[in-house]
Design brief:
The protein is mainly alpha-helical. It is built from 8 helices and 4 strands, in the order αββαααααααββ. The longest helix is centred in the C-terminal third of the chain and has 40 residues. The N and C termini lie far apart (about 80 Å).
Length: about 230
């Protein structure tokens, strides 16, 4: 294992117990079970206990990372992860997974602002690409003496920049729509667009009982017509 890998392994020490919950008491102070984690950047998979791997995935989910990307970072099998979660059964990790999902939705909701401002990874890559194009055309213009040739190069540059800008705007729109959809799915209580209707009693105290509505047809003679 590389020095970097040993550094990350030493950080974690012993994995916290799965019964301790999200927070545990450490010398009269509350400490998060995620406080000792850092993003795993080593190429080799960490030699961690499955409980610690599970907590690392939750740690990355809270930061807005998808479960697939978090599992790929530590080279962990998705089947093993979902087997330990087991959404149909009340496993020790179920409540912690639900909490991580809710916080993941909040992080994804904040990500829409980052994307709209052009501070996301895709926008940064496109900005570097645009800078390379501008630098290349600038060098060509400095070596060209003809004003007409420089004008043509400038027009080509502006056309290329406009085309790249359209691509970036389309990609950002797709990103925002995808992030909004995912945030609504993982945290519908905060990001759902569906409106809810609360039913209460007329006096405002307690809840009104739902009763079926009876419709009757009365004839001219005042008798109820049976249909």
């Amino acid at each position: 294992m590389t020095k970097k890998g040993r550094k990350h392994t030493a950080k974690g020490k012993a994995a916290p117990s799965e019964k301790s919950g999200v927070f545990h008491e450490d010398k009269n102070r509350t400490v998060s079970v995620y406080s000792g984690f850092a993003r795993w950047k080593d190429r080799a998979a960490p030699k961690w206990h499955p409980v610690k791997k599970m907590r690392y995935v939750f740690f990355r989910m809270i930061a807005g990372i998808t479960i697939t990307d978090a599992l790929r970072e530590i080279r962990w099998s998705p089947s093993e992860f979902w087997h330990m979660i087991d959404l149909k059964a009340e496993t020790p990790f179920h409540a912690e997974y639900v909490r991580a999902k809710k916080l993941q939705g909040r992080a994804l909701g904040d990500a829409t602002v980052v994307i709209a401002e052009g501070r996301d990874a895709v926008s940064r890559i496109e900005k570097k690409r645009m800078k390379k194009i501008v630098d290349r055309v600038t060098r060509k213009m400095s070596r060209t003496k003809s004003k007409f040739a420089r004008k043509v190069l400038m027009q080509q540059l502006l056309g290329d920049l406009r085309e790249i800008d359209k691509i970036v705007m389309g990609r950002n729109k797709l990103q925002i729509e995808s992030v909004k959809w995912l945030a609504e799915k993982v945290n519908p209580a905060e990001f759902s667009q569906k409106s809810t209707l609360a039913v209460g009693s007329p006096d405002g105290q307690g809840s009104a009982e739902a009763r079926p509505i009876a419709v009757q047809f009365v004839g001219p003679d005042g008798k109820v017509v049976k249909l």
